[in-house]
Each structure stands twice: as C-alpha cells, then as structure tokens.
Amino acid sequence: MITLTHLAPRLLAAGALAILCGCGGGATTAGTAPAAPRNPLEIEASPELEKELRIGEAVWTDVNGTLRTAGRVEADETRMARVSAPVTGRIAELRVIEGQHVEQGEVLATIHSTDLAGAQSAFLKNLTQHQLSRRAVARARQLLDAGVIGAAELQRREAELEQAVADLASSREQLAVLGMSPEAIERLESSRRIDSVTRVVSTITGRVLERRVTVGQVVQAAEIVCVVADLSNVWLVADIPEQSAGAIEVGKAVQAEIPALPGEAITGQLSFVSATVNPETRTVRTRMDLPNPRFRYKPAMLATITLMDGAERRQVVPSSAVVREGDGDAVFVQTGPNRFVLRNVLLGEEYRDMRVVLEGLQPGEKIVTAGAFHLNNERRRRAIRGGAEE
Hints:
The chain is rod-shaped. Helix 3 (114-146) runs antiparallel to helix 4. Strand 18 and strand 19 form a beta hairpin. Strands 1, 3, 12, 13, 14, 15, 16, 17, 18, 19, 20 and 21 form a 12-stranded antiparallel beta sheet that branches. It has a 4-stranded antiparallel beta sheet with strand order 4-11-9-6, with no helix packed on it. It is of the alpha+beta class. It contains 6 helices and 22 strands.
C-alpha cells in the first residue's frame, strides 16, 4: 500500500519542475518578437541574378496612335471589266483561261445565236427596202418633170424613203448592240451573207480573273462571260469596326504587312472611307491604292493593316519590363540597392517595342527594364519555397 508519506517527495519534485518550466517559458516569450510576414511581391536579388537585370526609368516620347486590323488585297474596281454576252446563244468556243493576259479587243469567246441571225436578216430586209425607196424617189422625180405624176406622189415616195432610212439605221444600231463591229456590219452589207456567230471581246487590257461559262453552255444576253482586271494597281481594303471608325478619314497614314511577302513594308494613305456603315457587320469599308507594277500583290491576299494617328506625348516603358501577373500587367520597381517590388500598372497600346503607361508609375521611379521575366520567376520560386517551409 502506498501512503501519503511516500507520495509527498514525488509531488514536491513535480511542482518544482512545473515552476521551472513556467519560468523558462515566460522568459522565452518575453525575449523573442514574432517574425513579420514576408511581402510576396517583394524580392531581394542575388548578386548572380542582379547581373542579368537592367535598371532604367519610364520615358516620355511622341507616340503615334495606331489601329491594327485585318485587311486584304482586292482588284481595283475602276480598272475592272465584267465582259458579258451581247446576245442569247450557245457558247461555241472559249479562247482564254483564268490568269491569262489579254489585250483590249481580243476575242474571249464565240457564241452561236439565232437572235443575231434574226437581227441580221431584218437588217438585210431594211437595207433592200431602203435601196428600193431611193430608186422609187428618183423615178418619181423624173416622172414629175415629165408631167406624168403629180407632186403628191413624189411626196409619198419621199416619206417612204425617210421611213426606210430610219428602219435601216435602227437595224444597224441593233447589230452594234448585239456585238457586231462596224467592219462586220459593212461585210454583211456587202456580202449579204448571214453569220450567226458573234464574238465576245475584252474591253480592257488585263488578266482574266474569272471565266464563268463553259463550252456548250446557253447564256442569256448581258450574262457575264469573263471578268478582266488591270492589276497594275490594286486596292488594300480593311473593314474598320464601327466603334473605331470615328477618327478614320481620307489621307490617314497606313502601314501594312502581307504574310505572303514577309519583310516587305507597305506604306501609303487612305484614298477612300465609306460614308455608310455595313448594317450586317457594323464596319466601315476603307482602302488605299497600291501600285503593283510587278504584279506581286494578288487579289485575295491577306494583310495586316495599321492606321496611324497623329503623334501624342506619352510615357512609355520597354516591353521587356512588363510581366503578366494574374489578369494584369506589372513592372518591378526598385526600392533599394538590390530590392524590388512587383507593382501593377495600367498599360495602353503597343508602340514599336514599347508599351504606353497610363497609370501606376511616378516620374523618376527606377524600374527593371530588362530581365524582369527572370526576376519574376525567382520571386515565384521563393514564394512557393517559403510557403512549403511554413
């Protein structure tokens, strides 16, 4: 059996130990301050990392406002001809293919047409009637001079001649509308042989962009057979969004790049800005004239077009100074000899290899202008390592 006499020494020893522990713990708490939490956006660069950094300031410079948009090359519509069939008929022959160069007056296709044959027949009838009316008037004058007929008969025959002249002129004009040249009409008049074949000729010198018919196809009068364009000058066209079109006007400077021709800079001015907004796309059509003496710019080529505004004084930083942090942009601001803090900034458009600063930097503040990417990676690494240690 254990008595109180035996427990007393043990209780006294335990109490003394508790007192000693309590005194030691109180002294430790009073002598040690809690560690301040580390700022995760701040970093102290190591000597090795500091060698990769370049320190500078935001600078003020004249910045041209820009608007970048997609564009394309199109044929100059003022140098384009949609050559159509002059008569209804069947395509008998096609003499050109797409991309072929043609001269003005060159035959593109031939058409067999019964309408043309009917018009030629009407012309020959009117030609015969005209000749008969002329002879009748000549005989009437002779008979009037001989006293055989009266003046009224001569007047009647002269009226018939005038009608025959008008009918012949109308028939001649109809043949011209149906595509017959003056030389072909003269041959018809002299030979009196009907030819139902008409020729479709190019009205300009250029290249065949489209051939819309095939041999044997029946075409209607005025139906397009070929599209021919002079490509020595083309259009560079862009559709500007309605909300950005307020300051767009003729004469605005244009810079363009065509991916199919890398490294070739294109400059010019807007020659046209549409007076209306496309109700379907809510865009405004613009274009610039682009000389094309070597035919290197081809219709339907894609382009990137930059419209330049007037120069404005703006604060800028190098693009290499900017890092992405979350959904925003940030730069490293120097707070000490080798200490930096990441600060969010509001940036505007890109200008050459710089970014316009709208908010976030004060004049004279030192920032990391090169090496910010590596510095930010090191900051993130330390933040992850610090979190793991905690």
